[in-house]
Write a structure and sequence with these properties.
Bound molecules: flavin-adenine dinucleotide, iron/sulfur cluster
Structural class: alpha+beta
Number of helices: 15
Radius of gyration: 21 Å
Length: 408
């Protein structure tokens, strides 16, 4: 347990001024858009474009770094921000009634499984086991949700521009299946969902996004947090800026995005083309296109979702499934009983379990020393290399590098 657990009774006064100074200008901001959707005065804009993915203040009366509504007492943006101050212990306290233990590197869990959709079509469309899509379809049929905030590809898909959107039907859920490795702030789609009259939403997103509803609830934000009833987290080491398509894949390898049909990351960046060809790009080469908002992110395992899903199983056929909450357990158990998914214990894949911990540690090490200390509690330091003259001694285990190839 950390000693950083928040005092719930403390009066919350922080506004945009503090958010700007402590999160946005320090590099902690992930671009999750939690503050944008929370603002009751609609004065926070968002740039969902290449080199953007950041919030900014729309009113300039007090400069870009202060807010007139904040000065009058509005605190919604900081209440929604999952990188502001003690966000990790606060979300943990709210969801689990306790903070994570020092060695819980991938957050607090109930069950660890490998799952895949029983329906071959859903399975085939999914990035890994098609579990996320199968679960959204089932949760909608069963009335848990009436819509899901997901990510689509813009237009006919050939631009590979990921955009947030709402799914209300099985077809729409399946249209969104698969992974894009550029950013999509799915939280932004809540506005459209509310306009459509939806009120029970699943939020599908990486940890940066799925931590937002729990901090909103903990910090008592009010009605903004209410439509989020099911939080579906995607494991994530990083996303890339959209410029990678032109500046690396096209410029160096001649791969046109219009001709790409699928991509994945399994130790290398894998790209499948319309002509049937398959290409691999070394992840080290992709490194310089890492999106700014990911560079300090400590949350590989989407630690505040009801269920967190990833592709680090030994083959692409299964989705690693981390069940975290009672709701998550109820949904997964019922789906297994209904035969909608097949599952097996995750510890049948030792490599995946080891990787889950290693990649979680690697991400936590990115959290900077100036930020709230709870995130770094229990994180083992990188092992040092052996001193040079020991020719006969085996080299010490090097610190794993995220960009050395986390499979996804
Ligand atoms: C940017 C990104 C990075 C990832 N990194 C890792 C990793 O390092 N290690 C790992 O094990 N797993 C990673 N994953 C998760 C993995 O790729 C699969 O999403 C997960 O295993 C679920 O597979 P599935 O077949 O069950 O999902 P599917 O049934 O294919 O559903 C996937 C869902 O993800 C949503 N989605 C797709 N792209 C995005 C996006 N860019 N932003 C927000 N939502 C999106 C879709 O809307 C869809 O609802 C990452 C996913 C993304 C999107
Ligand atoms: S991390 Fe999210 S909520 Fe916080 S400032 Fe950035 S976009 Fe806003
Ligand atoms: S690494 Fe993934 S979870 Fe972290 S900020 Fe980037 S997209 Fe979000």
């Amino acid at each position: 347990m950390t000693e950083n657990a928040p005092a719930p009774s403390t009066r919350w006064t922080a506004q945009w001024k503090e958010l700007y100074a402590e999160v946005i200008t320090t590099g902690l901001c992930t671009g999750c858009a939690g503050c944008v959707i929370a603002c009751p005065h609609d004065v926070i804009g968002y740039d969902h474009q290449e080199k953007g993915y950041r919030p900014y203040h729309l009113e300039e009366e007090l400069g870009l770094d202060n807010c007139i509504h904040g000065e009058k007492g509005c605190t919604s943006c900081t209440r929604a921000c999952p990188r502001f101050r003690a966000w990790e212990p606060e979300a943990n306290e709210h969801l689990f009634g306790r903070d994570r233990a020092d060695d819980e590197m991938y957050g607090i869990t109930k069950d660890l499984l490998l799952c895949r959709a029983s329906d071959d079509y859903v399975h085939q469309l999914g990035q890994d086991g098609g579990f996320v899509s199968a679960m959204l379809i089932w949760a909608m049929d069963e009335g848990y949700i009436d819509g899901a905030l997901v990510s689509y590809l813009e237009g006919d898909g050939t631009s590979w521009k990921a955009v947030p959107g709402v799914a209300r039907t099985k077809d729409e859920i399946l249209k969104a299946a698969g992974s894009r490795y550029t950013y999509s702030a799915n939280t932004l789609a809540v506005k459209e969902a509310l306009e459509l009259g939806l009120s029970k939403l699943a939020l599908v997103g990486m940890g940066c996004q799925t931590s937002s509803p729990p901090v909103m609830w903990h910090r008592k934000i009010g009605k903004v947090g209410k439509p989020f009833v099911f939080n579906v987290g995607l494991l994530c080491s990083k996303t890339f800026d959209d410029a990678i398509f032109e500046e690396l894949f096209l410029a160096k390898y001649g791969l046109r995005k219009e001709e790409m049909v699928k991509m994945n990351i399994k130790g290398v960046f894998q790209i499948w083309m319309k002509d049937g060809s398959y290409h691999e790009v070394d992840l080290k080469e992709c490194h310089q296109w890492t999106r700014e908002g990911c560079k300090m992110c400590p949350d590989f395992a989407a630690e505040h979702a009801d269920i967190s899903l990833g592709g680090i199983g030994e083959d692409n056929d299964w989705t690693l499934t981390i069940v975290r909450t009672d709701l998550g357990r109820e949904i997964v158990d019922r789906m297994i009983r209904a035969g909608v998914i097949v599952s097996r214990p995750a510890d049948t894949d030792e490599k995946a379990m080891k990787l889950l911990r290693t990649l979680s540690v690697v991400s936590r090490r990115r959290w900077p020393g100036f930020a709230h200390t709870a995130v770094s509690v229990g994180v083992p330091p990188p092992k040092k290399k052996a001193a040079p003259p020991a020719e006969t001694a085996p080299p010490a285990e090097a610190a794993p590098a995220a960009e050395a190839g986390p499979p996804t």
